[in-house]
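Q: How would the structure tokens look for this protein?
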Amino acid sequence: MTYVFFVVAIVAAYLLGAVPFAFLLAWAHGKDLRTIGSGNIGATNLARALGRRWGYVCFALDVLKGLVPVAVTGTVTDAADHPVFLSLWLVVGIAAILGHVFPVYLRFKGGKGVATSFGVALGLWPYFTVSALIALFVWVAVVLTWRYVSLASICAAVVFPISLALGILVVPTWQLTNLWPLVIAAVVIPILVVVRHRENIRRLAAGTESKIRSRTNPA
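A: Here is the predicted structure in token form.
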């Protein structure tokens, strides 16, 4: 019965993750987000199209797409920290991320997966949750310092597996023999995030990447 539940949870996580909230919010305002700004189906590009408020709303919705299926799965199964369970739990989260990045509803052309990955990490309590909060701190610090959302997302993705590794070294109850599936995912997911930002990396290197607007500097 447990394995049947995981199959259902994985499919449901993908379908939920694939819901393109940024596209739908822009469409509700009479705009096709794919033709605006970077053309990316995500909260940052939506903020360019509709303003920061809608960008924040979309970010929250994209986080929930990752958080809800993972949190529900962890609550319903309530299993021990066994590698098999952790692997299946992770697959549920990865399905949500892949849904956002490759949404079936938009011919598999979606966003970069940062917000949804953050939601997944928050739901994998406590291992990924702590690392996710550290990564969020780094994200905010980079945005406030340099005002590049893409750079902040890349830095947060890099910090995430490092913080998990430090947690395993410091916390006595976090045993690598049990948590190795999490370690693999903590490396693979950030790689996916960085790869999805390859165009942003090129623009950062060329000095053409867009900064977020500030109240004191509208550039």
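The CA atoms of residues 26 and 33 lie 6 Å apart.

The two ends are 56 Å apart (CA to CA).

Upvote if useful.
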